[in-house]
Amino acid sequence: MLESLKKAYQDNPNRTLAIGVGALVLTPVILPLLKPVAKATVKTGVILYQKTKGTLAEAGEVMGDIVAEAKAEVIAEQAQRNALPTAKSEGLNGIED
């Protein structure tokens, strides 16, 4: 990009200077017009950030609940499996006696 600017200046230095001076003159006029647009854009970004943050927090809560339920089910299934062989072995011991 720097090379293209150098080439543009070398080809027509007067036009390049006119663009620079025009930018300096128009900046104080354009800046106040762009400030409300920039402010509205930032405000929209902040609102979207807050909504997204809340949604992600809710999703995290739901996932935490699902994980807790799954862990509880796994523990219950393991306890049930451990209890079954004990009951079977007790039943067999009763038959053998």
Descriptive notes:
97% of the residues lie in helices and 0% in strands. Helix 1 runs antiparallel to helix 2. The mean pLDDT is 85. With 97 residues, the chain is an all-alpha fold. The relative contact order is 0.04.
- Uncertain runs are none
Helix/strand order: HH
Structural class estimated from helices and strands = mainly alpha
Number of helical segments with 4 or more residues: 2
The number of strands is: 0
Compute the separation of the termini in Å.
Answer: 95 Å
Shape: elongated
Percentage of β-strand residues: under 5%
Computed Rg = 36 Å
The largest sheet is:
none
Give the averaged pLDDT, no decimals. Answer: 85
Question: Which descriptors apply to this entry?
Answer:
single chain, about 100 residues, 2 helices
Short description:
By secondary structure, this protein is an all-alpha fold. 97% of the residues lie in helices and 0% in strands.
